[in-house]
Amino acid sequence: MGKQLLLDKINVPGIRTYEVYRKEGGYASVEKALKTMTPDDIVNEVKTSGLKGRGGAGFPMGMKWSFIDKKSGKPRHLVCNADESEPGTFKDRFLMEYIPHLLIEGMIVSSFALEAHRSYIYIRGEYMWVYKILQNAIKEAYAAGWLGKNILGTGYDLELNVHVGGGAYICGEETALIESLEGKRGNPRIKPPFPAISGLWQNPTVVNNVESISAVPWMILNGGAEYAKIGTEKSTGTKLISASGHIKKPGVYEIELGISVDEFINSDEYCGGMLNERPLKALVPGGSSVPILPAHLIYKTANGEDRMMSYESMSDGGFASGSMIGSGGFIVYNDTTCVVRNTWNFSRFYHHESCGQCSPCREGTGWLEKVLHRIETGHGREEDIDLLWSIQARIEGNTICPLGDAAAWPVAAAIRHFRDEFEYHVRFPEKIKNRDHFVEEPFEKVKHLLAKATV
Amino acid sequence: MDRTHRIHQDINMTPELMATINELLSHYPEDKPKSALLPILHEVQDAHDNWLSVELMDKVAEIIGIRPIEVYEVVSFYTMFNQRPIGKFMFEFCQTSCCATRGVEDLMDYTCSKLGVGIGEPTADGLFEVRGVECLGACGYAPMMQLGDTFKEHLTKEKIDQLIDDCKAGKVELHYKVNHG
Amino acid sequence: MKVTIDGQSIDVEPGTTILQAARMIGGESVPPAMCYYSKLKGSGGKCRCCLVEVSKGSEADPRPMPKLMASCVTGVMDGMEVNSISSERVTDARKSVTEFLLINHPLDCPVCDQAGECDLQNLSFKHGKSQTRYIEEKRTFEPEDIGPNIQLHMNRCILCYRCVMVADQLTDGRVHGVLDRGDHSNISTCISKAIDNEFSGNMIDVCPVGALTDKTFRFKSRVWFNKPYNAHRNCDKCCGKTTVWMFGNEIQRVTGRKDVYHEVEEFICNECRFDHKDVNDWVIEGPRKFEKDSVINANNYTRNIAPVVIETEEKILLGREEDRKKISMASRPLRPEETEIFKEGNV
């Protein structure tokens, strides 16, 4: 059993309530931080911990904190990004639903470190019941004196509120989230200026993921150096993985970074192996945006080394033969999965979620979806595969925010690793017109037909 | 063309609703009332049969002190705000990858044919509507749907049958209440 | 601060953007801009036409920037080196953006009032291709009436947000905005409200395409058949300095005075724009000049136009005659003896 920093108390009955959470040692980090540490001490602990932002981009949290503008004297804000919407990811919801006070505790300590007096948790609108759980937990924390004026008599004031979104994936992008928090459409801002200089209401702002903030209390109590001892040198600490797809035990698992992918998928402690013992075909290791890996690159890297659940091992080989750990949305596919259909599905998602502000993403995501849909429904042309490649390449890197890249990468990776499946779709349209294609007849069984078909 | 359908909606800003709105406004600096727009829209929509007519949006704009167009812009951007009347029990099935690989399409077909409607059409009695939405963040519990404030997960045809019966019998609560059991 | 663009150096004030610096240098290095408008605060960054490569960040931090940068919103640093037209990556990106902007554009220039002074036409001419790779059905929107002065053609819109900024920054109450999202985002009032306030007409001038055109000029003339003159009148609402577009002695249209980047020198009021179409209302200053390659110069009256001699005219006419013979169809089935005569074209 690996070390559990976030979920160790998750099974304690009633841990959702303030009384039980407090009895189990909750809010101790607030006492320690506010009474014995300076804001800079806390920033240093977080820096020492080496924690990489758990929202997907993996930017070191301590460094992000150190960028916040303290010179201008403007009010500062901490905003927690709980707009968890990356397909395959559902870990933050798990934390907030079952142990909401952990996040609130983290928010207080982190806000103190940033010397912020008005902080928000931005939660996606679809998590409406979790929003209400958090609202209730915040009320409890106010009542117990952990929030409000002069917390613990230290003179530190903090107002914490939870803000609810309205249904838009793009609001997970930090500047779009800030716009949404200001009551506007979720159009990402053009950077620079970065939020650390000009964020919420033009004030210096830090936006951090739920899981990142929830890890702070442990660091305060045990020290950043202790945190850094967990995991690997470059991937410190534990990480929540949302496991889904064709596995026996889907769910949220806390792992020590650096365990092998093999162990994660096949051990009973985690995913429990493949559903119905069908063969593994592909893996999306970090949410829909990251490149899909074909079977031969899942347990081993291109160099033949074991593939590990860590930032560096998951991206070993770059996009040619690796992927990214991203947000930890771990989606496993068996041999009945049609990669083309799944890629179309992802493209439909990005088409639906593009904010429409900049031209390459607005026009490109829809185009990708339409071409993929044609191929998937048996109306593809041979040249469509190269067309898809060209469209994704023309979106990538040319947009305001990373949604363009996120829409492009899955298409690129699918073509890179599963081009033969695209060719099969184009050359055998009659065979794939049935929605359940590949279920009775996995691609492996029909692959040989491709060798005979000439263009 | 006027893009709104101009369907009549009774507006009822009850004292309770106004109190909730004022509380939400207090969560933001006094000179930033617009920030409360999304949470307020959720509350107002919940209190008005889950949709927002032009008149209702104008009312929200007036309360917050912003221009009506600023509300229209926001309402049309986010998927959870409805600009026309919708079925009382809105079955919003997640269609994204994990749910799709775990058979949500068949369940949607099943539900639609059982209710005798297509996707996005309320049933004649206004009780049900089926919609396909994008990832709701329950990939490990696929296939699933959103109904009111909560999720219905690990769905099967039998569970859907039961759910429809429960909705008809008035046994389904759409609004979540925090309960420390 | 010194910045070098395509090898040409210039000293600029701190706070200058790369695009502004490029405009100071002028010439081929100036990136195209479809959404940036120097007179509208907060504009730019959206269309991605003006992407450039920053090969050296600054003297202090010489690292190149990994991604192409939107030159209209990226400030220059001392010692910065930028590649615009000289970088293949940049020209590729411009081609990409042009293609994206055109896939859903109706390409209805022959019936569009903006044709001839359209930034998208110019962009396509420079960076577009004559073939399309887009075989899907184009996106369309329901028409919306936004009042008697301004015609909205949403199908042509490229979502530059300039008109929204005009309404925010020049008028006292914005009633239109961007609704919906993604590729169905659209400019609308949502409730079909007439957009009428004293400065709303400037939305027409800032629109880079034919999405917002002057309803009072609708289908009256192609812009290159008009003769533009600078004119002014005493106006208590605006500067009163305009360009009047004449056909014979009739003023068909009034606009702001647009510079070489098609930005107005000064915004004008709706009264000047829509209500003074009588020559006697104006003091005509003289012909308005346009940039060298503008199609408006096709009807140029500011210089003498020499008669055009087409050296190959004879061959062209001969070719046409041969084509006529090839493609002509008989009006009734021909008898065998007539076929040969018909082939010769003697019909």
From TrEMBL, chain A:
Swiss-Prot/TrEMBL catalytic activity: a quinone + NADH + 5 H(+)(in) = a quinol + NAD(+) + 4 H(+)(out)
Gene3D superfamilies recorded: 3.10.20.600, 6.10.250.1450, NADH-ubiquinone oxidoreductase 51kDa subunit (3.40.50.11540), NADH-ubiquinone oxidoreductase 51kDa subunit, iron-sulphur binding domain (1.20.1440.230)
Family statement: Belongs to the complex I 51 kDa subunit family.
- Assigned EC number: 7.1.1.-
Entry keyword Metal-binding: yes
Record protein name field: NADH-quinone oxidoreductase subunit F
PROSITE patterns, per this entry?
Answer: COMPLEX1_51K_2 (PS00645)
| Segment forming the signal sequence | none
The protein's required cofactors: [4Fe-4S] cluster; FMN
Which keywords fit this entry according to its UniProt record? 4Fe-4S, Flavoprotein, FMN, Iron, Iron-sulfur, Metal-binding, NAD, Oxidoreductase, Quinone, Translocase
- Any one GO MF annotation of this record: quinone binding
Look up and give the organism this protein is from: Flavobacterium silvaticum
In the UniProt record, does the keyword 4Fe-4S occur? Answer: yes
Q: Which ranges carry the NADH-ubiquinone oxidoreductase 51kDa subunit iron-sulphur binding domain?
A: 340-385
Lineage here is: Bacteria, Pseudomonadati, Bacteroidota, Flavobacteriia, Flavobacteriales
Automatic annotation (TrEMBL), chain B:
- Give the note describing cofactor binding and stoichiometry: Binds 1 [2Fe-2S] cluster.
Cite the GO molecular-function annotations of the record.
Answer: 2 iron, 2 sulfur cluster binding; metal ion binding; NADH dehydrogenase activity
Please list the residues that bind [2Fe-2S] cluster.
Answer: 94, 99, 135, 139
SUPFAM superfamilies from the UniProt entry? Thioredoxin-like
Query: Which UniProt key words apply to this protein?
Result: 2Fe-2S, Iron, Iron-sulfur, Metal-binding
- Cross-referenced Gene3D superfamilies: Glutaredoxin, NADH-quinone oxidoreductase subunit E
Q: Does the keyword Lipid biosynthesis apply?
A: no
Cofactor(s), by name: [2Fe-2S] cluster
User: Its family?
Assistant: Belongs to the complex I 24 kDa subunit family.
Name the chain's protein. Answer: NAD(P)H-dependent oxidoreductase subunit E
From TrEMBL, chain C:
Give TM regions: none
InterPro entries per UniProt:
2Fe-2S_ferredoxin-like_sf, 2Fe-2S_ferredoxin-type, NADH_UbQ_OxRdtase_ferredoxin, NADH_UbQ_OxRdtase_Gsu_4Fe4S-bd, Prok_molybdopt-oxidoreductase
Provide the 2Fe-2S ferredoxin-type domain boundaries: 1-88
4Fe-4S His(Cys)3-ligated-type domain residues are 89-128
Superkingdom, natural source: Bacteria
A Gene Ontology cellular component where this protein is annotated is: membrane
Record keywords:
2Fe-2S, 4Fe-4S, Iron, Iron-sulfur, Membrane, Metal-binding, NAD, Translocase
Q: Where found in the cell? A: Membrane
Name any cofactors this protein relies on: [4Fe-4S] cluster; [2Fe-2S] cluster
The UniProt GO MF terms for this protein read: 2 iron, 2 sulfur cluster binding; 4 iron, 4 sulfur cluster binding; metal ion binding; oxidoreductase activity
Q: What is its main location?
A: membrane
Q: So what family is this one in?
A: Belongs to the complex I 75 kDa subunit family.
Protein's name in the database: 2Fe-2S iron-sulfur cluster binding domain-containing protein
Annotated organism of origin:
Flavobacterium silvaticum
